[in-house]
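Deviations from the work plan: none for this task. Representative record:
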Amino acid sequence: MVKDVGELDWSLLQSFSAVVDAGSLSGAARALAQSQPTIGRHIKALEAALGVGLFTRAPRGLAPTSAGLEIAEMAREMQSAANRLRLIADGKADDLNGTVRITASVVTSHYVLPSIIADMRQAMPEIQIELVPSDTTENLIFREADIAVRMYRPTQLDVITKHVGDQPTAVYAAKSYLDRMGRPKMLKDATNLDFVGFDKSDLIIRVMADLGIKTTRDFFSLRCDQQAVHWELVRAGCGLGGAQTIVGDADPLVERLLDGQIQMQSLPIWLTAPQALHTNLRIRAVWDYLSNALAKQIGI
Amino acid sequence: MVKDVGELDWSLLQSFSAVVDAGSLSGAARALAQSQPTIGRHIKALEAALGVGLFTRAPRGLAPTSAGLEIAEMAREMQSAANRLRLIADGKADDLNGTVRITASVVTSHYVLPSIIADMRQAMPEIQIELVPSDTTENLIFREADIAVRMYRPTQLDVITKHVGDQPTAVYAAKSYLDRMGRPKMLKDATNLDFVGFDKSDLIIRVMADLGIKTTRDFFSLRCDQQAVHWELVRAGCGLGGAQTIVGDADPLVERLLDGQIQMQSLPIWLTAPQALHTNLRIRAVWDYLSNALAKQIGI
DNA sequence: TATGTGCTATTCATAATTGAATGGTAAAAG
DNA sequence: CTTTTACCATTCAATTATGAATAGCACATA
């Protein structure tokens, strides 16, 4: 767009930055919602404008030359500044219309948030919601999400956080399993039953050790680290498993076991969002709604 | 160019940055070699994408809103990074074809450099030269010029400098003036003649005080601060004036006076260029040529 | 070996962007 | 007061940029 009389066209630099990050024209095109030939042309135009080869073409993408690597530092700075600019501007937007991106763990996204979001959409139909289930930590500053619902205290800088409360956890099993195997009255009776465990995670092993029951990974004949699927295995009658009470108590297929016999640790619920966005009306509205709805579910 | 699915189009940000700097759509359009309606559309698109008013329209241009001012910081950072990127890339360019921008004082640009540049263009015709006469200090990092010829030691950071040598100065007057008024043999005789002085600058007053002649601004019945015009006044026969010997001795209209009677201070010649550009073949070639030609002129 | 995947490069039609031209407003100058 | 200057906003034709489609290459898999 900018003619070549001294000033570099920043859209060429944007494409350069995306190619450096993605390592290929196709990857950059996907990231920028553009086409591969367009990105290829931008890189070619930039190389011509600068008079330097920035990449070597390879079958699996583009590898930056040493010049390209050196220049990538500046491009990264531009990207960082652009991200911050967007963040600040979004904090000042005064329009309720638009999208808010919420991220939460897969379990929470699957079992907790849908009913809350359905109600919220009815209450605020002008706000669109994008739900990003993820068990990894999203980077809020890069706007991978606007609001995160987390079971641990957030530690990222420049974010605001709110501790909504603590949700209890308990042991559950499917009614069908208990009908078949019997219902344990005491904790020691339960150790003869099947437990659904985790594969790599030692969380349940540690919890049971705290209860005086020493187990190893082989004690759990069925193991799955993915928590939502772990819960589906319990619901299907594969054995006993732990879950948040707001999930388990709401499920008609399962029963809660051993109340009073074991004291499970609670899980905290935290909300977090980039500080700069807290003045954004839209995100503020979703934040408040989520906070109230989650508090209500855990009985606060 | 980038569709509005999360990633801001940097060409919009580039236009925003130019408008903030120039204070108007028209000014920004001139700076970016674009048209005013295009820049206006970019600002409008950016305001729509961000959902924030960035400027208030005024008869004399655009005034940034408080949001616009805050966002301008990031745009400034992007511009700074883009400038550095360009500088580094240009330092790596390996093409002799292209433009080199030289800046020097108006006097040097007028009387010294033309013959040098004519020879250089013959020696290296693939290199285009842009000469920027200026008595103010250009910012080399922003590529307002590639090479500066200066009469003082450059102090800007991240530049390389070379002291070519010192050029003597002397007192001159037009032959026509001397034919009419006589030729002074001694310094005290000269004080009865006309001197062309400076208006605001006290340079000549200080030089003469050093020679034991106390003068005030009113001693000079004709005054002009612009050095090239000052020299034209001398050449036209308005009176005596000081000049660099490489200018004065080359001029058939004037004579050099009072040699041996007064010892004028020399003026240094320095070359300077951004450090990052010193690997650029084109700029390196022009630097070397200038250095040699100027040294030859002052007898080194 | 054949097939599938992921990539780059190129062509051509379409879509989007751009700029010349025009009109209007406000402020400065004569 | 009139004229000039500098600005923004809008329209419409021209220009430029884009993307779908295709071909080719390298690598991995069955």
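Chain A touches chain B through 41 residues (CB under 8 Å).
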